[in-house]
Amino acid sequence: MSTKNRTLGEYIIENQNSFKYSSGELSKLINAIRLAAKVVNHEVNKAGLVDILGAAGETNIQGEDQQKLDVLANEKFIQTLTNREIVCGIASEEEDDFISINSNDNQHQNKYVVLIDPLDGSSNIDVNVSVGTIFSIYRRITPVGTPVTLEDFLQPGKNQVAAGYVVYGTSTMLVYTTGDGVNGFTLNPAIGTFYLSHPNMKFPEDGRIYSVNEGNYIHFHQGVKDYIKYCQEEEGDRPYTSRYIGSLVSDFHRNMIKGGIYMYPKSSVTEEGKLRLLYECNPMAFLAEQANGLAIGGKTRILDVQPKELHQRIPFFCGSRNMVLKLQEFLTKYH
Ligand code: AHM
Ligand code: MG
Question: Binding of substrate: at which residues (predicted)?
């Protein structure tokens, strides 16, 4: 079927039956995320106009200042998913603990849990740089009819049934996978409709962009330092181009389109790295693999890691297949 002018709503309905566990519940869930994304997009776009910038005066569990828009995006996503009674549990980067969803009508009957980073890269908000929402969906492990428990959330990334992100950039896009490739939809703000603009997205096998916070170079381990030097050497198609927005969703999105590698390594100051396994790395790793790329946390595939806690951090390297494989050669030299 032609992809011309296809809306996200149409796409969801058309693909509802191709999903292997299909009962319509996942489609409703993606629809709810679509709705919340539009609401948050509206708030993000008017951020410079109204007085909702700056720290809200609260800190999240990682001890970082929350920006007001983080709080708002968190509320909007949780509210939308809760009101529609389509998930049994939500875990958010902005919440200390997971939330169990139940109602008198529903009695814990829903199958899916959602993990969400409502507004990633929020330090970029007050300088008008792109931010994003990241989401990850699993089937619960515990039986329906009972409240969710921590084990429903602490599943390895390979168990994800869907994952995606919204990038609030020059255009707003929703990009997601249900395990059958990656598709990108661009919002037409005039009418509030997402259109399929990037069908079947793929990382180029090779890339020429490396994205890392090089200000931390001195603290990186030798394998990463050597790989960065390799990127900078004059040989073949090198030196590569360095591009780092400091907003994972945007850096990933650009690298997927143009070919590149994103790195947030561990260092002598942050032994676990910075990014969260459940809210950031797993969904991006699922998307990367579905788009012909790779995602590793050092020696291991991100999607194989068994999480131990909700807010666990992990080093993260993700992008074009041959770039990640080359980096892995450097990392294994020192392990
Ligand atoms: P956040 O969840 O607190 O926004 O942090 C995650 C962000 C990523 O989007 C980005 O890639 C990274 O932190 C940038 O960190 P740094 O400023 O240390 O380079
Ligand atoms: Mg984040």
Answer: 120-123, 213, 244, 274
